[in-house]
Specification:
about 120 residues, Immunoglobulin-like, four-stranded mixed sheet
């Protein structure tokens, strides 16, 4: 159980290895950084779950994915300013005893997310 994320680069058809990500807890307009990390070759946090089952709490969270930095590192020619810079996903955890997986499918021009399993 706990909280995890996974990012897939739909432009290249691969995991988004090397993408910078930040996790925050949120309360209204206040966001508190929990951790920053860079995705591993599988497009996941190299340290495993962002929260394990005993640490995840009911509340609101934000994941911020540095999409522009990632695609620039892949030598993708982006306009200036580029269409997507950082993608923020704000979400709530209502049942801390369940697993929350937040995948991101992303290209320089679009993204989608959902609550995965």
């Amino acid at each position: 159980m706990g909280l995890s994320t996974h990012v897939l680069d739909t432009m290249h058809g691969s995991p988004a290895a090397g993408m910078p990500v930040a996790l925050y807890t949120t309360a209204g307009d206040l966001a508190t950084l929990v951790k920053s990390f860079v995705l591993n070759p599988d497009g996941r946090n190299p340290d495993g779950p962002l929260y394990d089952a005993s640490s995840l709490k009911v509340g609101t969270y934000r994941l911020v994915f540095d999409v522009a930095a990632y695609f620039r590192s892949k030598d993708v020619a982006l306009p200036e300013p580029n269409f997507l810079n950082k993608v923020s996903v704000d979400f709530g955890v209502a049942l801390a005893d369940q697993h929350y997986h937040v995948p991101l499918l992303v290209s320089p021009w679009s993204y989608s997310t959902y609550r995965g399993s």
